[in-house]
From TrEMBL:
InterPro entries: CheY-like_superfamily, Diguanylate_Cyclase, GGDEF_dom, Nucleotide_cyclase, Rev_trsase/Diguanyl_cyclase, Sig_transdc_resp-reg_receiver. The modification 4-aspartylphosphate is found at D53. Residues 4-120, 155-269 form the Response regulatory domain. Residues 319-453 form the GGDEF domain. This is diguanylate cyclase. Keywords: Phosphoprotein. It is an enzyme of class 2 (transferase). Gene3D superfamilies: 3.30.70.270, 3.40.50.2300. NCBIfam families: GGDEF, PRK09581.1. The keyword Phosphoprotein applies. Its EC number is 2.7.7.65. Pfam families: GGDEF, Response_reg. It catalyses: 2 GTP = 3',3'-c-di-GMP + 2 diphosphate.
Length: 453
């Protein structure tokens, strides 16, 4: 599906002209004539890019952009201000309002399309992260909403062999960021850019090929998404277009206007922080989706999915899979006598002993309460029994200690063991192991019982 672009301009001719240019390039175009309507459409339809005229009645483009970027529902949508204004103050005002770029009329079609392609690709990437994060959150994991991100300035590396220009950039960016100047990097992708929030490359250097460096960075997986801002001489159209083609995130003209550079750098650092926030929260939520909060072991959801896969594979001629079901003996007495905090400490300690007494390939999980499961790929019934005995012995041999219990407490565990047979299902396999637990309890607890099919 093509990217969807919202064109906002109060002049009919301008709207139709932009709509025609974008439609020819196979973009899906929506239009409106004022800022308030643009905000409504952006909230409802989530376009991939907004081309926003500045000079509009009632609410101008600056204010419209500011409101879009202040709204958590729309702040991730790239906004390009399109206007006949070409003054330095207007560009900076637009960038400080949150615009991702500022293009002057009459529009250069090649540059316009290059920026549209770049920003819509970025939006699609961010949307994928947001969608995956939201999918995880919908199953009950993670905090609601995405809070507004705030933070200190970013770490910025300037690659420029023009020392005077670089010193000017460092001085300007140093007011809010942590800039570092590298005279040259050539094609050496060293540790100098590890953890960098923004890389600024002078494409007009004499000591090395800045565009070649840009190409190398975009070709490497580790730096493919690194924000890069390229300095290009005013009027050097071929180099500017090549930088956009190679994947630079933004362009600043030489001679460098420090205030404009600072505004564009802030936009890139802010966007990087946002995407990192999404990635980190996605990873955190994915981990939470498969992890028991109290013990840190895998949870029931993860156990079920893994066991289903392993049993299916065994039924197709793959390795046998075994399971242990473990139930702490008389756990209710611990909770009733010493409180739930002490009971939680016992569960956490048991989880540690369980995890350290199984093999690296085994999957220790908490089913809930005081009941645990170990899924054991490629394991026979006899080997599973041996490991179950090792766990049982470790638990009963060394007392547990927890706050509020005074003396150390002896804890025991009853274990049921089962291994897969042809045409088994996860349910039948677990049921046999669970029957082993009941039998162990009936025999006096602190026992391992093997249940064959």
């Amino acid at each position: 599906m093509s990217a969807r672009i919202l064109v906002v301009d109060d002049v009919e001719t301008n709207v139709r002209l932009l709509e025609a240019k974008l439609t020819i390039e196979y973009y899906d175009v929506a239009t409106c004539r004022d800022g308030a309507t643009a905000i409504e459409i952006a909230r409802a339809e989530q376009p991939d890019l907004i081309l926003l005229d500045v000079m509009m009645p009632v609410m101008d483009g600056f204010e419209t952009c500011r409101r879009l970027k202040d709204d958590p529902v729309t702040r991730h949508i790239p906004v390009v201000l399109v206007t006949a204004l070409d003054g330095r103050e207007d560009r900076i005002r637009g960038l400080e309002a949150g615009a991702d770029d500022f293009l002057s009329k009459p529009l250069d079609d090649v540059i316009l399309m290059a920026r549209v392609r770049s920003l819509t690709r970025l939006k699609i990437m961010i949307d994928e992260l947001r969608e995956r994060e939201e999918s995880v959150r919908r199953i009950g994991i993670g905090d609601a909403g995405i809070e507004r991100l705030r933070g200190t300035g970013g770490r910025i590396v300037i690659v420029d062999d023009h020392d005077e220009q670089a010193a000017h950039i460092v001085a300007e960016l140093g007011k809010n960021h942590r800039p570092v100047h590298l005279g040259t990097m050539g094609n050496d992708l060293s540790s100098s850019i590890n953890g960098v929030d923004l890389l600024i490359i002078n494409a007009a250097t004499k000591g090395f090929d800045g565009l070649r460096l840009l190409a190398h960075l975009r070709a490497r997986e580790s730096t493919r998404n690194l924000p890069i801002l390229t300095l290009v001489d005013t009027g050097d159209r071929p180099r500017l277009l090549k930088a956009l083609e190679l994947g630079t995130n933004d362009i600043v003209s030489i001679p460098v206007d420090g205030h404009e550079l600072s505004a564009r750098a802030f936009t890139q650092v802010r966007r990087k922080r946002y995407t990192e926030f999404l990635r980190e929260r996605l990873e955190r939520n994915l981990e939470a989706a498969v992890t028991d909060v109290l013990t840190g072991l895998h949870n029931r959801r993860y156990m079920s999915s893994q066991l289903q896969s392993l049993v299916s594979r065994a039924n197709l001629g793959g390795d046998q899979v075994a399971v242990l079901i473990l139930d702490l003996d008389h756990f209710k007495i611990i909770n009733d006598s010493f409180g739930h905090d002490a009971g939680d400490e016992v569960l956490r300690e048991f989880a540690v002993r369980l995890a350290t007494n199984v093999r690296a390939l085994d999957l220790p999980c908490r089913l809930g309460g005081e009941e645990f499961v170990v899924v054991m790929p490629g394991t026979s019934l006899e080997d599973a029994q041996t490991i179950a005995e090792r766990i049982r012995s470790n638990v009963s041999r060394e007392p547990f200690r927890a706050k509020g219990m005074g003396e150390a407490l002896t804890v025991t565990v009853s274990v049921g063991v089962a291994a897969s047979v042809p045409d088994d299902t996860p349910e039948t396999l677990l049921k046999r192991a669970d029957q082993g637990v009941y039998e162990a309890k009936a025999l006096g607890r602190d026992k391992v019982v093997v249940r064959a099919a």
